[in-house]
Design goal:
Layout (H helix, E strand, L loop, with lengths): L13 H4 L11 E5 L2 E7 L9 E6 L5 E3 L5 H25 L3 H31 L4 H70 L12 H23 L2
Antiparallel strand pairs: 1-2, 2-3, 3-4
Helix pairs in contact: 2-3, 2-4, 3-4, 4-5
């Protein structure tokens, strides 16, 4: 089924009707024709889905929203929704402990930050069309503050995530260095004791080799020979 945009019960100049698509209201923007100002804004994105919120300012100064004459309250409510989203994400950012927590905050921040930035620019342009409208002036300033707040929060969250990743990488390097150091010590111990253990194993076998009745001096000579081979092996391992 082909998607069509919503229609509202209000009077629009034909020149504005011609500039609106039949399927959707499109991006956040202003349409100013015959002293009628249509302000197309987006609600806070949810899972990257955007719902339109369409305002119409008539030449007499009345502000309508989605076909109703409650435009002023609706515009304040829209900005309040962005403010609430910022407060929630700011709290989640403070509570985040792991890199996954910070990534989750950033993932939600990116589309909302983009939508808020476009909303702020749209209201700024709307204020330029009707410079005497105090409501648009107030909402424009609020939207600008929200835009700056979201940008700062997004930048801080990205910086914190990068720090967490770098810190985790540094911890992994330190653990790897400790493992290499322990492995080196084990290699040195094995290289030092292997000759002695080999000689002891050979002479400990139940074989008649004719040295059972020799002087104790032969034992110590064999022991010293094993030590010499161990030191030689150590030197060979450490040699660059």
């Amino acid at each position: 089924m082909e998607k069509t945009r919503r229609t509202y019960k209000w009077d629009l100049p034909e020149s504005i009707e011609k500039r609106i698509g039949s399927k959707t209201f499109g991006k956040q923007r202003n349409i100013f024709e015959e002293d009628h100002l249509m302000i197309i804004l987006h609600e806070v994105p949810v899972d990257d889905h955007r719902e339109h919120c369409v305002f119409m300012r008539y030449p007499d100064g009345k502000l309508w929203c989605n076909g109703r004459d409650t435009g002023k309250a609706q515009l304040k409510g829209l900005l309040q929704n962005y403010q609430t989203s910022f407060d929630e994400l700011d709290d989640k950012g403070d509570e985040a402990k792991t890199a996954s927590d910070h990534f989750e905050v950033i993932e939600k921040l990116v589309p909302i930050n983009r939508a808020c930035k476009n909303l702020s620019q749209t209201l700024k342009q709307a204020r330029d069309y009707v410079p005497d409208d105090e409501v648009l002036l107030e909402m424009r300033d609020w939207a600008y503050e929200l835009e700056r707040s979201f940008e700062i929060l997004l930048a801080d969250s990205k910086l914190t995530l990068e720090f967490k990743i770098a810190q985790k990488g540094e911890e992994q390097v330190q653990k790897a260095n400790l493992a290499l150091d322990a492995q080196h010590k084990l290699n040195m111990l094995a290289g030092f004791t292997f000759p002695i253990m080999s000689i002891a194993t050979i002479f400990g076998m139940n074989l008649q080799h004719g040295l059972e009745n020799e002087s104790i001096i032969l034992f110590w000579c064999t022991f010293l020979c094993g030590l010499g081979i161990g030191y030689g092996t150590r030197y060979w391992i450490l040699k660059k």
